[in-house]
Specification:
Elements (H helix, E strand, L loop, with lengths): L20 H7 L8 H8 L5 H15 L6 E5 L7 H6 L4 E6 L2 H11 L5 E5 L13 E7 L8 H11 E12 L9 E6 L4 E6 L6 E7 L7 E7 L2 H10 L2 E9 L10 H10 L5 E8 L4
Helix pairs in contact: 6-7
The structure holds S-adenosylmethionine.
């Protein structure tokens, strides 16, 4: 059966963008600057709940940082990964993010450490940070926040030494699409299911963070089918060597049918996907 026609969005670098206006006004060049204060508070010094229990352990397990290595954290935000990397013995951490406010927050935490360098840069565009000197790279919870993954992956590749590795963790594109996926409960079968209303078309979805509060702000979530993401990784000259699907650490403990169904579903539907890829010597 033929696939229905797709509605691709265009990256907004010098081209006409199908992305919502909110993106152009609030997050085009400055990443999550408009929601930086909220995000910094949410993540704090040690990470959000999901960072601490799922994202950071999953990242470190796949990355397996070695003492003395140079690691670049692309779209580093307020620097949540810096401390765990240093504690793992990494020799130098460079953090790059488009948001001046989040880089400021990262500098407030780690700027005094001579092993750490933090820079404001658009990770979708080439820059001096992508100079081929990193042993490893990371990119946490940001693949879906940039309009141009071809640019992002190409720059990550350029940042790495030949054979260098990258670990990227992002929302699972099959199960976690804002406004398009939801939980449902089948009362007859006592099953909690994941409802997926749309998946196969790339889509720029406006998201309001912490709605209803005076300091709420707008970001854009760029949904792409998994095949598009994996193809873009390969086309950038990165070869996937490992993949993990990361599940919530939260489990319902109740004994009723709803709790039991919720408990089971939490172990069946992953929140995030983690990819490990290496810089290929040929493209
Ligand atoms: C959900 S936050 C994740 C931040 C951090 N990695 C973490 O796990 O806390 C997404 C980050 O991507 C950054 N970002 C979005 N577009 C970017 C771009 N084009 N270049 C660099 N950073 C970007 C945002 O500023 C924001 O810090």
């Amino acid at each position: 059966m033929p696939k229905p026609p797709r509605r691709p969005f265009q990256p907004d670098h010098g081209r006409k963008s199908a992305a919502p206006k909110a993106r152009a006004e609030s997050t085009a060049d400055r990443g999550w600057d408009p929601v930086a204060a909220w995000y910094d508070k949410l993540v704090g010094d040690a990470g959000s709940d999901y960072h601490r229990h799922v994202i950071l352990p999953g990242t470190l397990e796949l990355l397996a940082p070695r003492p003395g290595e140079t690691v670049i954290d692309v779209c580093c935000g307020q620097g949540v990964l810096v401390k765990p990397l240093l504690e793992a013995g990494v020799g130098r951490v460079t953090g790059v993010d488009a948001s001046p406010r989040l880089i400021e927050a990262a500098r407030a935490r780690h700027g005094a450490d001579s092993r750490v360098s933090l820079q404001v840069a658009d990770a979708c565009r080439p820059g001096p940070w992508a100079d081929g000197s990193a042993d490893a790279a990371t990119c946490l919870m940001a693949v879906h926040d940039v309009p141009d993954i071809a640019g992002l992956f190409s720059n990550i590749r350029s940042a790495l030494k030949p054979g260098g590795r990258v670990v990227m963790v992002f929302m699972h594109p099959c199960f976690r699409i804002p406004k398009r996926t939801h939980w449902g409960f089948d009362n007859d079968q006592k099953i909690q299911f994941r409802r997926v209303d749309a998946y196969g078309s790339p889509e720029a979805i406006p998201v309001t963070t912490h709605p209803g509060r005076a300091d709420s702000g707008a970001t854009t979530f760029y949904h792409r089918p998994l095949a598009d993401v994996l193809t873009a990784v390969g086309e950038a000259g990165l070869g996937v060597t490992a993949c993990r699907e990361l599940f919530s650490h939260r489990r319902s403990q109740g004994n009723g049918p709803f709790s039991r169904a919720e408990h089971k579903a939490a172990g069946e539907f992953p929140l995030f996907i983690a990819l490990k890829a290496v810089r290929l010597t040929t493209r």
